[in-house]
Write a structure and sequence with these properties.
The complex is a heterodimer of chains A (about 270) and B (about 350). Chain A is about 35% helix and about 25% strand. Chain A has one domain: Rossmann fold. Chain A has about 270 residues and is α/β, with parallel strands linked by helices. Chain A starts with 6 loop residues before the first strand and ends with a helix. Chain B is an all-alpha fold and about 350 residues long. Chain B has 13 helices and 2 strands, in the order αααααββαααααααα. Chain B has a two-stranded antiparallel ribbon with strand order 1-2. The longest helix of chain B is centred in the N-terminal third of the chain and has 38 residues. Chain B is globular. The chains are: A alpha/beta (about 270), B mainly alpha (about 350). At the A-B interface, helix 2, strand 6 and helix 3 of A face helix 1, helix 8 and helix 9 of B. Chain B: This is Iron ABC transporter permease. Chain B: Its main location: membrane.
C-alpha cells in the first residue's frame, strides 16, 4: 500500500466563541481509507473536520500530522499534505474554471514564480478527472451547481494532497452527480492511495462508499467501524432517533437502510 | 485535448493583454489630467512659459503659480488619490463587500477628528496631525472589529452598522470642535473638512511618498495571497495562505494609506467607496487590481478637483464634487445590498 500522511488528534476541545461544540475528542484518521462522518445536524461533524484542517483554532488538545504537532508546520507545507473542500463556496464571478483550478497550485509556488509545466500538468489531470475539460474556459459564474462543485473539486485535486477532506460535497446535487463525485473519490483512493474523509448526510451512500464510518452525536463520536458494524437498527435509533429496517444491498453487499416514517411506525405498533 | 488547452493559453494571453491595455489607458488619462491641471487654471500657461520656468528663466508670477500653487496641488492630489484608491479597494475586497470601506466605516471621519483635535487644541505640527489620523483610524477599526466579533467570527452587517455609528459620533465631535474653535481657524477647518487640495503640506506629502515606496513592493509580494483570499477565507487557508497574518498586514496598509491621505486633504467624500465598484466594473473581479485601483483613485481626485476649481462660478472643494457623484452610487449599492444582490460571505 502507498504510504500516506498520518493524521491523529487527542483530547480536542473545539467551539465558537464561548460555546463548546466538541469536548474531549480523540480520533485517528485511517490512512489510505475512505472514512465517512455521519450524524444529525449540529452534531459537530463540520466543526471537527474544520479543526483537523486548522480552519478553526483548537481550544484544547493537539492535532498530529505524521507524529508532529500540526501547529509546528507552516501553512503551505500543510496545504501540500492536507486539502479540504469546505461548504458554501463562492468564487469571483469572472474567474474561468482553468484559472480557478490553477489556484489549487498555490502551495507549490513561491512569490513571483509562474505556473510550471508540472503545475499545468496537475491542473489538466484534475480537470480530466472531474470531466471539466470541455468547460475549462467557461466562467465559474456561468456554470450550473453541479458543474461548479466539480470545478471546486478539481481545484482541491490539483492541490495533490495525501489527505482530502470534503464537507458535504454532494449537497444540492442530483443523484447521478452525487454518485459521480463519490465514484471519483473512490477511484482516487484506490489508484493513488489518497486518504479521504467525507461528511455525508446520505446514509445509504455513506454505507456504500465508506471503508470506515464515524458516527457522531452532540460533539462526541458514538461509534466507529465498518458499515455493517455501524449501520444497525439500534445505532440509527440511538444516533438519529430513526426507526428503520436494514437489509443487505443485493448489488454492493452493504447495509441498506429503509427508514420508517413516523406515521408508518405508529401504524405498525 | 492539447488543442483545447492551447485555446486556454491564448484566452489567458488575451486577458493579460486586455488588462495591460486598460491599465495603460488609465495611465494616459491620468497623465492628461496632470498636464491639464498644470497648464490650465485661472491663468492659462503656455508650454514655453512652463519650460522656461523649469530652466529658471520664467517670471516670478509663473514661478509662483507653478511651484507654490499647481505642483503641490497636482502631485498632492495624485498621491492622495492613489492612497485613497488602494486603501478603499483593499478594505472592500478583504470584507467581500463594497459597503465596507474607510468612508462608510467612519475611519476617515475619526481620522479627521483626531487630526483636527491636535491642530486645534495642541497647535501641533502637521506631521503630528498625520500620526493622530493614523491612530484614530486604527482605533476605529479595532473597536468596530471588537464589537462585531462573535467568537472567532466577524459579523459583517454588524461591523458595517457599528462603523456607521462611529461615523455619526465622529461627526458630532467635529461639530462640537467647530463651535469651540477659534474663529480665525474656522475657514481653514471648513475647507479641510469638505476635502480640499488647497492646503497641501509638503512635509506630510513626503511622509506619504515614503510610505508609498515601502508599501508598493509589499503589496506586490502579497498580490497572490490576496487573490487566494478573494476566493474566500476558508478555502484560502486550506490552500496554504496564512489568512489571518496576511489580512492584518493588508488592513494596516489600508488604514495607514487612508489616514495619512485624510490628514493631508481632509475626508474627501465617498472616494474610497467609489474606487472598488469602478475598478471591478472595468477590470473584472478576478485579480488583485492594486495598481488600477490607485489609478482610478488618482483620476477621481484630480478630475473632481479640476472641475471644482474651473467649471463653476464658485470654487468647489474636491469633496463636494465626489460627494455629488458618490451619494447616488451609495444609494444604489444600499438598495442592491438590501435586495441581497451583493453576495456577502
Amino acid at each position: 500500500m502507498i504510504k500516506a500522511a498520518q493524521l491523529t488528534a487527542e483530547n480536542l476541545r473545539i467551539g465558537y466563541g464561548k460555546r463548546t461544540v466538541i469536548d474531549q475528542l480523540t480520533i485517528q484518521i485511517p490512512a489510505n481509507k475512505i472514512s465517512v462522518l455521519i450524524g444529525p445536524n449540529g452534531c459537530g461533524k463540520s466543526t471537527l473536520i474544520r479543526a483537523l484542517t486548522r480552519l478553526i483554532p483548537l481550544k484544547e488538545g493537539t492535532v498530529y500530522l505524521n507524529g508532529n504537532q500540526l501547529s509546528s508546520y507552516n501553512s503551505k507545507d500543510i496545504a501540500k499534505l492536507i486539502s479540504i473542500l469546505p461548504q458554501m463556496l463562492s468564487a469571483p464571478e469572472d474567474l474561468t474554471v482553468y484559472d480557478l483550478v490553477c489556484r489549487g497550485r498555490y502551495p507549490y509556488r513561491s512569490f513571483f514564480q509562474p505556473l510550471s509545466a508540472e503545475d499545468h500538468q496537475q491542473v489538466e489531470w484534475a480537470l480530466k478527472k472531474t470531466q471539466m475539460v470541455p468547460l475549462a474556459n467557461r466562467k465559474v459564474a456561468d456554470l450550473s451547481g453541479g458543474q461548479r462543485q466539480r470545478a471546486w473539486l478539481a481545484t482541491i485535486l490539483a492541490q495533490h494532497t495525501e489527505i482530502v477532506f470534503l464537507d458535504e460535497p454532494t449537497t444540492y446535487l442530483d443523484i447521478p452527480f452525487q454518485l459521480e463525485i463519490l465514484d471519483l473519490l473512490k477511484e482516487l483512493n484506490e489508484r493513488e492511495g489518497t486518504t479521504i474523509v467525507i461528511v455525508l448526510h446520505e446514509l445509504n451512500l455513506a454505507a456504500r462508499y465508506a471503508d470506515y464510518l464515524f458516527a457522531m452525536k452532540k460533539g462526541r463520536i458514538i461509534t466507529t467501524g465498518s458499515a455493517s458494524e455501524v449501520i444497525t437498527k439500534k445505532n440509527l435509533k440511538r444516533i438519529f432517533q430513526l426507526e428503520s429496517e436494514i437489509i443487505t444491498d443485493p448489488i454492493y453487499n452493504r447495509p441498506l437502510i429503509i427508514p420508517k416514517s413516523s406515521v408508518h411506525s405508529e401504524r405498525i405498533q | 485535448m492539447r488543442k483545447r488547452f492551447a485555446k486556454w493559453y491564448v484566452a489567458n494571453f488575451k486577458n493579460y493583454t486586455r488588462h495591460f491595455n486598460k491599465t495603460i489607458f488609465l495611465l494616459l488619462l491620468l497623465i492628461l489630467l496632470l498636464v491639464v491641471s498644470i497648464k490650465y487654471g485661472d491663468v492659462k500657461l503656455s508650454w514655453s512659459e512652463i519650460f522656461s520656468t523649469f530652466s529658471g528663466e520664467g517670471s516670478s508670477s509663473t514661478k509662483f503659480i507653478l511651484f507654490s500653487l499647481r505642483f503641490p496641488r497636482v502631485f498632492g492630489g495624485l498621491l492622495v488619490g492613489m492612497s485613497f484608491g488602494i486603501g478603499g479597494y483593499i478594505f472592500q475586497k478583504l470584507l467581500h463587500n463594497p459597503l465596507a470601506n474607510p468612508n462608510v466605516l467612519g475611519m476617515t471621519s475619526v481620522s479627521s477628528v483626531a487630526a483636527m483635535a491636535v491642530f486645534l487644541f495642541f497647535e501641533a505640527s502637521h506631521l503630528f496631525m498625520s500620526a493622530a489620523a493614523v491612530v484614530g483610524s486604527l482605533l476605529t477599526v479595532i473597536i468596530a472589529f471588537g464589537l462585531a466579533k462573535d467568537g472567532d467570527h466577524i459579523l459583517q452587517n454588524r461591523f458595517i452598522l457599528i462603523g456607521i455609528g462611529i461615523q455619526a459620533m465622529a461627526d458630532a465631535l467635529i461639530s462640537y470642535m467647530m463651535i469651540k474653535a477659534d474663529p480665525s481657524d474656522l475657514s481653514t477647518l471648513l475647507q479641510w473638512l469638505s476635502g480640499s487640495l488647497n492646503q497641501i503640506e509638503t512635509n506630510q506629502l513626503l511622509v506619504l511618498l515614503i510610505v508609498f515606496l515601502i508599501f508598493s513592493p509589499v503589496l506586490a509580494f502579497l498580490q497572490r495571497d490576496f487573490e487566494q483570499i478573494m476566493l474566500g477565507d476558508e478555502i484560502a487557508q486550506s490552500l496554504g495562505v496564512d489568512v489571518n497574518r496576511i489580512k492584518v498586514i493588508l488592513y494596516l496598509i489600508s488604514i495607514i494609506y487612508t489616514a495619512l491621505a485624510t490628514a493631508i486633504t481632509g475626508p474627501i467624500a465617498f472616494i474610497c467607496f467609489l474606487v472598488g465598484p469602478i475598478t471591478d466594473r472595468y477590470f473584472g473581479k478576478t485579480a488583485a487590481n492594486f495598481l488600477p485601483a490607485a489609478l482610478v483613485g488618482a483620476i477621481l481626485v484630480l478630475g473632481a478637483d479640476w472641475i471644482g476649481q474651473n467649471v463653476f462660478p464658485v470654487r468647489l472643494p474636491v469633496g463636494v464634487l465626489t460627494g455629488i457623484v458618490g451619494a447616488p452610487v451609495l444609494l444604489v449599492t444600499l438598495i442592491n445590498y438590501a435586495k441581497g444582490e451583493i453576495v456577502n460571505d
